[in-house]
Amino acid sequence: MKFDSNNAFAKELDLNDPLKYYREKFYIPKQKNGSEVIYLAGNSLGLQPKTVREYVEQELIDWEKFGVEGHLQAKNPWLPYHEFLTEQTARIVGAKSEEVVNMNSLTVNLHLMFVSFYKPTTARHKILIESNAFPSDHYAVQSQIKFHSFKAQTTLIEANPRKDETVLKTEDILELIEKEGDSIALIWFPGVNYYTGQAFDIERITKAGHEKGCIVGFDLAHATGNLLLNLHDWDVDFAVWCNYKYMNGGPGAVGGAYVHEKYLDDKTLQKFLGWWGHDKATRFLMEHTYISIPTVESWQLSNPPILQLAALKASLDIFDTAGMEALREKSEQLTGYLEFLISENKNDNVDIITPPEANERGCQLSLRIKRDGKVLHKTLNESGVVCDWREPDVIRVAPVPLYNTFEDVWRFFEILFN
Ligand SMILES: Cc1ncc(COP(=O)(O)O)c(C=O)c1O
Predict the structure, then answer these.
(1) What is the pLDDT, as a whole number, of residue 394?
(2) Please, which contacts does 88-92 make with residues 24 or more away whose CB atoms are closer than 8 Å?
(3) Beta carbons within 10 angstroms of residue 383's beta carbon
(4) What is the pLDDT of residue 360?
(5) What is the pLDDT of residues 165-203, one digit of tens each?
(6) Coil, strand or helix at 389
(7) What are the E-state strand segments in 146-211?
(8) Bridge partners of residue 49, in order along the sequence
(9) Conformation bin of residue 412: beta by default, left when phi > 0, alpha when psi is -120 to 50
(10) Ligand 1 within 6 A of 132 CB?
(11) Which atom, in ligand 1's list, is nearest to the CA of 108?
């Protein structure tokens, strides 16, 4: 699409946007003066769907009415409640329904998956991680290595960008896998880097890892509900994500997990067990011999938080009618438009560090601010823009196709450079 930098052009794009009515389904926070903020932080915390209250309220009513009987008698019985989210979740990440479950939170799920999929031996004990992966991933991986009595210094391989570069080259990642693969037990990569907004080639990284006999898993915190994913067909071994960013499941929302179907019947996998992973038909016989659910639900430990699942269900219903393909198409245009406006301006204080190729990024552009970044961020904030600052020098901006407009992007650009 050919972009133009005047406001009328942004208005025109909004007018012709087939997804324009979705914005009305969300609460847009307000400034002190009563006007809506320019919310560009959906990569951090997605906005609240207006239907969330009704979904949560339904469960509060049923709790009030039925007490414990709500597990079976609630309008949406709590016993199987998480199953009501499964099909939609599977569509979002491109998986079969038996391969996905919403449970716990991201870092907890990461550890549960590592119990099953990080099986270090003396000859093959290494973990390949991106050097700039999210801190929680680094901490979790370091602790897993220690738990298995190895040392991070010799077991952790970090993929780094080339000298004086900020993002990784796919060819360098693949070369590293080719070179070190025989000693790598697990490749643990993000779908999208939280800091730079770089989207990784999940399919090629997985394929390269498998060719060297490695297990390949992904942290999809910034990819779920953002990129078009095809986890099953890409043969990804396992993945985890959070649902509070692009998925709009609310602060601290229940996380998500995926395990490829080829492992679902694998009795040799180590797993930490809990009663919610036990065969549903016999769970309440309260016997002590564990029988596994034959799906990824067998990784569940506890009965899930229904109020949180209700909030997430409200958002999943919206995603389902909008469709990931239409969302992605608009997302590419929104982000492309933001990039166009910033690049056109040629302001020497702002560098876009996110890759320019559409297939190497999602909604987010990360702007490296060379001088007085925090001051600029504060000014943006005081002018009604919500976006986040990441140390040492980056402002992250994420126009989200469900509720952001082209005019949001245009107004942000006006404030950024005025
Ligand atoms: C890429 C990534 N990984 C992990 C986490 C940690 O998530 P949680 O607090 O849900 O465990 C985050 C949180 O923002 C994240 O962005």
Answers:
(1) 97
(2) 88/316, 88/317, 88/319, 88/320, 89/256, 89/316, 91/320, 91/324, 92/224, 92/225, 92/229, 92/247, 92/316, 92/319, 92/324
(3) 16
(4) 98
(5) 999 999 999 999 999 999 999 999 999 999 999 999 999
(6) strand
(7) 156-159, 184-190
(8) 26
(9) alpha
(10) no
(11) 11
